[in-house]
Amino acid sequence: MAGAAAMGGAAWAGHEPRRPTPDRPPPSSDLVSYEETVLAFRNHGFHLEMLDQEITPLGSHYQLIHFDIPQLSPAGYAITIGGRVKKPLRLTLEDLKRRPVVKEPAILECAGVGRSYSHPRAIYVPWFNEPIGVFEYTGTPLRPILEEAGLLDDAEEVVFTGHDSGIDLGGHVSSGVDAGAKHFFERALPIDEAMKDGVILAWDANGQPLLPAHGFPLRLVVPTWYGMASVKWLRKLTVINHTFQGVEQKLVYRLQTSSSDSGRPVQQKWVRAAMKPPGFPDAISRMRFLKATEPIRLVGKAWSGFGAITKVEVSTDDRRTWQPARLGTPLGPYTWVSWEFDWDPRPHKGKEVILSCRATDDKGHRQPLKPWWNVQGMAQQGVERIPVRVF
Amino acid sequence: MAGAAAMGGAAWAGHEPRRPTPDRPPPSSDLVSYEETVLAFRNHGFHLEMLDQEITPLGSHYQLIHFDIPQLSPAGYAITIGGRVKKPLRLTLEDLKRRPVVKEPAILECAGVGRSYSHPRAIYVPWFNEPIGVFEYTGTPLRPILEEAGLLDDAEEVVFTGHDSGIDLGGHVSSGVDAGAKHFFERALPIDEAMKDGVILAWDANGQPLLPAHGFPLRLVVPTWYGMASVKWLRKLTVINHTFQGVEQKLVYRLQTSSSDSGRPVQQKWVRAAMKPPGFPDAISRMRFLKATEPIRLVGKAWSGFGAITKVEVSTDDRRTWQPARLGTPLGPYTWVSWEFDWDPRPHKGKEVILSCRATDDKGHRQPLKPWWNVQGMAQQGVERIPVRVF
Predict the structure, then answer these.
(1) Do A213 and B47 touch (CB under 8 A)?
(2) Residue B292 — very low, low, confident or very high, per pLDDT cuts 50/70/90?
């Protein structure tokens, strides 16, 4: 087509997949089954054009719904805190709202981020770079609730149970856990993690009650861990004196180097940076086109579950050379930080440029150029390649 | 796994896609490219478990975002009404809100519904049954605005232009329209359609301002047509005296029987019914499991852009026999109608049952058992097959 040629790019090539991976173009076998495609529609992705905003609008934040969305009424709703505690508690939504209230912008990111950049790819929600988002949550800190219940001396973990239930026939390792039995979604935190600042029970996001798909009427928010820890539609908290053996912890959401490795559970978010795609898109391929008329500002966000971001670097030559971006001031300790980088696309007129960004945190973690492969395709944080056709 | 066997189903088979189509199981070639998978994450699907609710909660309604979401401020926002009119108008959001206000539950459905049930499948957003949803919109009727502007005698169509722009390199027919040139999203309505009751300019959905992904601050709602007509992020209305030749009308969103057929634009929603998936899901395959302890009530919705629903039938034997469902009373003339059907799964214990529903409207349109194929995979309305494993 004339328009495509005028922009310096080949016309869209039809059926060939060509989505870039962090480290190389995808092989022609990069195809997704219909089952996984259904999961991509159910589990909404973040809209990357919102990467210039500190708070993600409702309707543009990612969602991961493991089973079905439970339909819960706030009337009569309550959670229980039991197990290895001195004084079991039952708290209604009104009880919780009478406790100390905090407002907290928090970044959530699905543990399955970047799964489709892995080769071979694990079969589950076939995420690329879009399972992210920041809402400002309103809730109450968890620690005082656990203190009021009184942890017994042998308390090791807190199990958070949601109202959502189903089965996991695709369980990745069959190590004695019956994933085919109907179960509630459950994840545990070690006591020291559950007691940390920032861990809250939240009822509002962006100033209004949680949407049903985001955990109405109450969810846990663990801002430094991947999203599976922030259990939605909370039903009960159970303090246990051993390591939790539930399906979503023992089988799913684990980092395994091989299928014979039982692995370790996914926990903190690894350091990562993301860029607002510059220019304008082609509707189907989402390829970006940029008119080279003047210098532009590249912007994006960076975050880490291990600490503060100390550096973001930008490459405009497919990761050969790097230059520092300017960092902004985050809205709080549990959210992402903005970065910006001024770039002149005019010398690249008529070419396809590969843009990348790369974050480092204050623990010295830095995004790898080649992502670390693992069996379930969890926690991929390799530096992204964003092709832009300059015309 | 023991659990799966106990439920009477084979264990999940790993990489094999097996999503059912309306008329038959998919062939092994039913795979989706990475590019299309990215579109499935961006373009959110309706959560089918919400099919028992009249109004879809925010965060669970489908979205189709052709280019990027424009970021618009309500301050200073205005639309213009021009072209073949006697008195061109400029209306701010405040001007519009001072006009007569209507509240209107309306069903929207993407024209690409069922595209992945087609063989061969067109390349664009690879929808199955999930691009639907009903919000209650608040807005003002369009007709009085057009009457105030005063249509000239040669007025034929009204073109609605959004603020969203980009290119369409995947344009399906290259018939002289340059889809590769940057353009705004635009669709037109014939004057008689634009003047119909129910066509409104809406600023609220479910009692709050439109979310950015749903057209903030103002969108058109054409409740009887497929979703592409309900232009989001409205920029201007232009009355023309000919047939609109824009990319989204002349090339995209057309019903074509072959690639040499220029086709006709997609318009009214064809009659369709949908069922809330019964039982509980397997997390990855979304296969449904149902414990056969007592009779259950199957529920769902039905709608047509041509008229009222007069009949919904249910089949529990893979479309061999049909029985009538009971119809509810819709909330208004532009939304879906509820249906329910009592069914005893106990005789089917240990078997996989295929459930279906089939709607008829008052114009005599009835869902076909085999869908009508077309080049772009538009407006698929074939009767669905919903496999349920009874245990």
Answers:
(1) yes
(2) very high
**Are the Cβ atoms of B284 and A65 closer than 8 angstroms?**
no
In percent, the amount of chain A with pLDDT more than 90 equals 77
pTM of the model: 0.93
Q: Do B169 and A282 touch (CB under 8 A)?
A: yes
Residues of chain B with C-beta less than 8 angstroms from the C-beta of A69: 47, 49-50, 60
Distance CA A256, CA B365 (A): 54
Mean pLDDT calculated for residue range A354-366: 97
Q: Closest Cα of chain A to B130: distance in Å?
A: 8
For A200-209, what is the mean pLDDT? 98
**In whole angstroms, how far apart are CA B321 and each of B259, B314, B352, B383?**
37, 8, 17, 13
Q: What is the spatial distance between Cα A203 and Cα A215, in angstroms, rounded to a whole number?
A: 8
Instruction: Round to whole Å and give the CA distance between B69 and B185.
Output: 11
Instruction: For residue B308, give every residue at least 6 positions away whose Cβ sits within 8 Å of its Cβ, in sequence order, or none.
Output: B333, B337, B361, B362
Using DSSP, state whether B33 is helix, strand or coil: strand
User: What pLDDT digit, counting tens, does each position of B244-286 carry?
Assistant: 988 888 888 889 888 788 888 899 999 999 999 999 999 988 9
Of B37, B50, B57, the CB nearest to A116: B37
Q: Kindly list the structural domains of chain A, giving each domain's residue range(s) and its CATH number in brackets, ordered by start.
A: 34-260 (3.90.420.10), 270-390 (2.60.40.650)
Rounded Cα–Cα distance for residues A66 and B3 (Å) = 18
Quote the DSSP letter at residue B333.
T
Report percent pLDDT > 70 for chain A. Answer: 90
Provide the shortest C-alpha distance from residue A37 to chain B (in Å): 6
